[in-house]
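#structure-requests
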Amino acid sequence: MAVYPVETGQADYGSNGTSRFIPQIWSGKLIEKLYARTCFAEIANTDYEGEIKNQGDTVIIRTTPTLTIRDHKMGATLTYEQPESAPVELRIDKGKYFAFECDDVAAYQSDIKLMDSWSEDGGQQMKISIDTSVLATIYADAGAENAGATAGAKSAAYNLGTAAAPVTLTKDNVLDYIADIGSVLDEQNVPEDGRWLVIPAWVKNLLKKSDLRDAGITGDDTSVIRNGKIGALDNFTTYVSNNMSVVGGNTNIVFGHKKSLTFASQLTKLETLKNPTKFGNLIRGLNVYGYKVIDPKAMGHLVAKKG
């Protein structure tokens, strides 16, 4: 069996002997790769994306002022105000890229289009990287009244945990805490439609062991144990992510409304260049992006550990 020689240090794409990725006959199908779930595109709005071409671009967000409501008496002179609200700047100050080379011999001897496949993989991995970046930081910008041991803008009655004293979630209390975070947003007059909650896989596990498994309690036709879906919880659209921030063993769980977070992103460069030193191509892609919590009152933060 003929084996195409491979230069020392060159990525080896054959499957036999010295050539582990370029088989004589290849199945034409890559092993399906499990991509981490991403949720940043679901929990943020992109209302201000606009034209983004390079890192360093800035999107100006015009916020809505709060008008003063006054008592009225017949014949009274009206007081007029000049509403003002400082614009918020969304800086497109982050960027991620992928770059790889594809040898002509590898592409020719493979039964699939390697460049297309690897470019798709690069895009998926970029989404995961950005997702991790977003979830790692936004919890710190949640409204002060929507976090901590005395959360609740009106009542200060809800303990959502702190870094020093996280709440301990179990199958018996996890639904109670979800009810609490719903009440925290209620006290901020956050609309019920458009609320979201991001949880790690271990919280999903607790939910499936909780009373949710009883379809009669939830009002669903099928138990969560049967269909595997968490669905909507207390008006929250629930997302499961493996990209969440974990600090000192505590998971920073975020919840809120889509109006709280804005995100802007664009793949500004996707280029194929001829490799100047080998037979083949160089492929590279650049994605620039930025995100900002523009309404902290519509976002909350729960610090939790597994019981």
